[in-house]
Structure formats: structure tokens, C-alpha cells
Automatic annotation (TrEMBL):
Protein name: Cytochrome P450
Species in which this protein is naturally found: Parthenolecanium corni
Any one GO MF annotation of this record: heme binding
Membrane topology reported for the UniProt record: Peripheral membrane protein
Xref: InterPro entries: Cyt_P450, Cyt_P450_CS, Cyt_P450_E_grp-I, Cyt_P450_sf, Cytochrome_P450_Monoox
Classification of source organism: Eukaryota, Metazoa, Ecdysozoa, Arthropoda, Hexapoda
Domain of life: Eukaryota
Binding positions (heme): C158
């Protein structure tokens, strides 16, 4: 079986279509723009990083640029922490398994609570605040490597992870170079709507402004 056939088989047998497609990217990008609109100082810090790299050069971003945009990476990782769009995943265990004080018999279905991990105050002291500094190299080095798992972990993790991150970075750079985003919504007032991909209930208003011609690159 070649790589494409394997991917097709995994897609058709395992996952609801929303989880494996562009829906995940669309929802995460919308969540990210809302976070940036609600936190202007973070949006401007990100814009400054992008502006410093591109200056007056009108060329579009490409993959090799992203090693020079560390704050962009932090912003996306923090968005996926705060809004774990796939908040939980099931796992059926193959053998009797001891976890802490509990012995789970073979075939038990356990739920990995991704959102619970991401909002654990022992890992993130202010779990409901949008704070990309949760993902500075220093902060990451102090936490367990599975303290942020929006794409799951292990051999069955998300096969589209790299593609999704690339698409989100390309889109955000293009959007932020041209527009600024504004809202009066407070992130703490947002309600989530459960589904295969968790979205924000009822939508939310964002004002999009064209950046000044002088500031725009
Ligand atoms: C922000 C974007 C995305 C997030 C947060 C995300 C998250 C996840 C998660 C949590 C899983 C479950 C893995 C598990 O059960 O351990 C998964 C599986 C999967 N994802 Fe994604 N995903 C995203 C984008 C994508 C994209 C763009 C594609 C396709 C190009 C994709 C393809 C898949 C496939 C095929 C699986 C099933 C893997 C398997 O069962 O072996 N995902 N994803």
C-alpha cells in the first residue's frame, strides 16, 4: 500500500470528516484572529515581528521564513491550547493497564481529556488567559512534553499537523501584513459549542481595518 492509499484508509475509517480537513484550520484561524483582536498588544507584537522580517519587501512569506518568526509559532500554539478544538479523544486499551491507583481491564475505552490538560492551572497558572508567553522556549522546557497536545501524541497523532501549521502561518502572515483586527468581545465571555470540532457558539463580531498604506507591507 503506498502513502496516499494509507492516508485514504486512515481518513475513511477513523475520523469524522471535520477533524481531518480544512475545517480544523478554518476554526483555529478564526479563534486566533479573535484572540488577537481581543488582545491588541499581542497583535501589535506579532505584527512588529512580521514587519521586522519583511520590511518593505512585498514578497509573500514562504516556509523558510518561519524559523525567524518565533512569536508567530507561540501565538498559534497558545490559540490551540486555549481552544483545543478537538477537546477529547478515545483510546481502547490492548492490555490490562494500571494507571495510578486504578487497574483498567483490556478493551476499556479511556478518554484523553485534551482540554482538561490544556486548562490545568498546575501547568498554566492563568489557564483561561491568552498568553503566547506560555510557549517561550524557557516556559516549554519547564513543562511535561505532553502538557500541550492539540494534535494528540504518539503513533496515531494528527497526520495533517505540519500541513495545518504551515497553512495557518502563511494565512496569518498574509492577513496581518494587510489588516488589523478589532473586537469589543472579552475572551472570558465566550461560550463553546460542542461538536466533532469545537467552535465558538453563535459567532462573534470582529472589525477588520486596512492597515495604513505607509505601515502596510
Ligand atoms: C488545527 C488543525 C488540526 C488539529 C488541531 C487536528 C487535531 C487532530 C487530533 C487531536 C487527532 C486525533 C489523533 C488521535 O486520535 O490521537 C487528529 C487526527 C487526524 N487528523 Fe488532524 N488536526 C488538524 C488538522 C488536520 C488536517 C489539515 C488534516 C489533513 C490534511 C488532518 C488529518 C488527520 C487524520 C487523517 C487523522 C487521523 C489519524 C489516525 O487516526 O491515525 N488533520 N487530528
Amino acid at each position: 500500500m503506498n502513502g496516499a492509499e494509507k492516508l485514504q484508509m486512515r481518513e475513511s475509517k477513523q475520523m469524522p470528516p471535520q477533524i481531518r480537513g480544512s475545517e480544523t484550520i478554518r476554526v483555529t484561524l478564526a479563534n486566533c484572529l479573535l484572540c488577537l483582536a481581543a488582545c491588541q498588544e499581542i497583535q501589535e507584537k506579532l505584527y512588529a515581528e512580521i514587519n521586522q522580517l519583511f520590511g518593505t519587501d512585498p514578497r509573500p512569506a514562504e516556509e523558510s521564513d518561519f524559523k525567524n518568526l518565533p512569536y508567530l509559532d507561540q501565538v498559534i500554539r497558545e490559540t490551540l491550547r486555549l481552544f483545543a478544538i478537538i477537546p477529547a479523544i478515545p483510546r481502547q486499551i490492548e492490555n490490562d493497564t494500571q494507571i495510578g491507583a486504578h487497574l483498567y481491564p483490556k478493551d476499556t475505552i479511556l478518554i484523553v481529556n485534551i482540554a482538561g490538560i490544556h486548562h490545568n492551572p498546575k501547568l498554566y497558572p492563568e489557564p483561561y488567559k491568552f498568553n503566547p508567553d506560555n510557549f517561550t522556549p524557557e516556559a516549554v522546557s519547564k513543562r511535561h512534553r505532553h502538557s500541550s497536545i492539540p494534535f494528540s501524541a504518539g503513533p496515531r497523532n494528527c497526520i495533517g499537523k505540519e500541513f495545518a501549521q504551515l497553512m495557518m502561518k502563511l494565512s496569518l502572515v498574509a492577513l496581518l501584513r494587510t489588516f488589523s483586527f478589532h473586537t469589543s468581545i472579552k475572551l472570558e465571555d465566550i461560550k463553546l459549542k460542542p461538536g466533532p470540532v469545537e467552535t465558538i457558539s453563535g459567532g462573534y463580531p470582529i472589525r477588520i481595518k486596512l492597515r495604513d498604506e505607509g505601515a502596510r507591507r
